[in-house]
Design brief:
Elements: H1 3-31, E1 44-48, H2 51-57, E2 65-68, E3 85-86, E4 91-98, E5 103-111, E6 125-127, E7 134-136, E8 143-145, E9 152-155, H3 157-161, E10 167-172, E11 178-181
Antiparallel strand pairs: 1-3, 1-11, 2-4, 4-5, 5-10, 6-7, 7-8, 8-9, 10-11
Amino acid sequence: MTSRLRKRLKYKTATAAAIFAAALSACCTSCNTITDDALPALPVNINLSPVSVWNTYGVTAFGSYRYFVMQNSEPSGFPYIGQSATGFGGVLLVCGFNPYTTDASVPMAYDLACPVERRAEVRVRMKATDTFPMAVCPECGSTYNVVEHGGAPESGPAAASRLGLTRYRCLDAVNGGYLIIN
């Protein structure tokens, strides 16, 4: 075999190996992907500012949570205004660990509607466990880890279908507290 032929063969082998590695990586990555946009995208705008509003309606203890459902006036007494919106099924606000930023004891927000059921009136509810509360769908029984894993499904049809809860952004407000938006 000539030197030139060896180089060409070596180049083709290396190229084929690189293509195979990229394809394998893409397959493995896509298998671990959780879909968190299965629900209709409706506006979310909850103003938990100034700090006095946050202190009354926010979440500060790790694992604490609160539901916001504007059409049900939940939580009672919350000052919803004209621009307020609570998404498809309402909003679940939780204090926990953000797996995307690795910040701990931060507010995180999710749509309350179960992504398996895809009905606004079928809302997950928080249920106590041995460690931290989990969001559980009363219809399909799917559980979601909202305190430590960003709303990822833990069990039930949601885990089999890799459907996580829809996440919303919690932004620091200028006057203290937070804004929850999509």
